[in-house]
Automatic annotation (TrEMBL):
Annotated InterPro entries: AAA+_ATPase, DNA-binding_RecF, DNA-binding_RecF_CS, P-loop_NTPase, RecF/RecN/SMC_N, RecF_2
Annotated gene: recF
Binding site for ATP: 30-37
PANTHER family: DNA REPLICATION AND REPAIR PROTEIN RECF
Organism: Dyella halodurans
Protein name: DNA replication and repair protein RecF
Family, per entry: Belongs to the RecF family.
Every AAA+ ATPase domain range: 22-354
Record localization: Cytoplasm
Keyword tags: ATP-binding, Cytoplasm, DNA damage, DNA repair, DNA replication, DNA-binding, Nucleotide-binding, SOS response
Pfam families associated with the record: SMC_N
Length: 359
């Protein structure tokens, strides 16, 4: 798949920008603070319903603006053209596709964008929440009923936590239906997460061989969020008193995590900061490759500040791989990376939120 155009209004420093795009590699070059990353952020928002940048949602809005909108035309590998948009007025997001209102999950299911950016090392070195987001986005795109189980789980979790924090004594009978629902939804989520990681491992091994061959074989370790062999419904009932004291549900799928171990670096602490970045990049590329295997087309790949994050040899290796498979690649940098000089590349200069084509 590839984006044929993007129109962005009111996103950070981008007031009203229209970007025509081609299927191959596009570079957005310009000084820091010019709005380059915000262009990738717009594409990512269409695919995730959130930004890859940290900070308050209000920071997405251009200063003085009360709304933002992103419109795009997306061409699939089978030549289908989709026109869709994402807008925000106040705190609420609204999505449309081909003129009709749709849910955010429908939009995310239609548009797939993966991104490697300066904060991506958090996938390896950060907290579990970032890894769960990565995992669940991948499962969502290959298991159609995952979103239903995820929604059931989130609803039951919210209800149980509300009961745990109640100022009055709550009868056990009120907890039971939500704990049963949590157990049932968690069982399905756990099964699909494990299957996804098992399928991902082959693609990750291939990515690692090209980026970090010195680390040896790679292993993915999954922790489902509650004790192995235990029934979650029974466990929640048994630990209800402890959860009441803490005011939240302490075990379940919302506590799941996964990690990577190498033959020559069995613990995360054995990795340098550079190796953490390359491992995160390998995860992004592996997820994109698995998506392509299951869906028959590559997602859009965004590489933010490529030259600052990777040395020249790794830049060349990544770009050559993505060009070989025909992926659309959106790259930012203060200048055009040397690794992209040899092949066909579309280039835009970005200055104070304005774009001008160079090549």
């Amino acid at each position: 798949m590839w984006l044929e155009s993007l129109r962005i209004r009111g996103l950070r420093c981008l007031d009203d920008v229209t970007v025509p795009l081609t299927p191959g590699v596009t570079v957005f070059a310009g000084p820091n603070g010019a709005g380059k990353t915000s262009l990738l952020e717009a594409a990512f928002l269409l695919s995730h319903g959130r930004s890859f940048r940290s900070g308050a949602r209000e920071a997405l809005l251009k200063r003085g603006a009360d709304s933002l909108s992103i419109f795009a035309e997306l061409r699939h590998a089978d030549s289908r053209l989709r026109r869709f948009g994402l807008g925000r007025q106040g705190a609420r997001w609204e999505a449309r596709m081909d003129g009709a209102g749709i849910s955010l999950s429908e939009l995310v299911g239609e548009c797939a964008v993966v991104c490697f950016e300066p904060g991506s090392h958090a996938l390896i070195a950060g907290g579990a929440e970032e890894r769960r987001r990565y995992l669940d986005w991948g499962v969502f795109h290959v298991e159609h009923d995952f979103i239903l189980a995820w929604r059931r789980y989130q609803r039951a979790l919210k209800q149980r936590n509300a009961l745990l924090r109640s100022s009055s004594t709550v009868p056990d009978a009120q907890f039971l239906p939500w704990e049963v629902e949590l157990g049932a939804a968690a069982s399905l989520m756990d099964q699909q997460r494990e299957l996804y990681l098992s399928a991902l491992r082959t693609h990750l091994m291939s990515s690692i061989e090209g980026l970090l061959p010195e680390l040896g074989l790679v292993e993915l370790r999954y922790r489902r969020g509650w004790a192995e062999g235990a029934d979650l419904t029974e466990l929640l009932a048994a630990q209800r008193g402890r959860d009441i004291a803490r005011g939240h549900t302490t075990q379940g799928s919302h506590r799941a995590d996964w990690s990577i171990a190498f033959d020559h670096a069995p613990l995360r602490e054995h990795l340098s900061r550079g190796q953490e970045k390359l491992t995160a990049l390998a995860c992004v590329l592996a997820q994109a490759s698995l998506y392509a295997e299951r869906r028959g087309e590559w997602p859009v790949v965004c590489l933010d500040d490529l030259a600052s994050e990777l040395d020249k040899a790794h830049q060349v290796a990544v770009v050559e791989q993505l060009r070989a498979v025909g992926a659309q690649v959106l790259v930012t940098g203060t200048e055009v990376p040397e690794a992209l000089m040899d092949g066909p590349t579309q280039v835009f200069h970005v200055e104070q939120g304005h774009l001008s084509p160079l090549l």
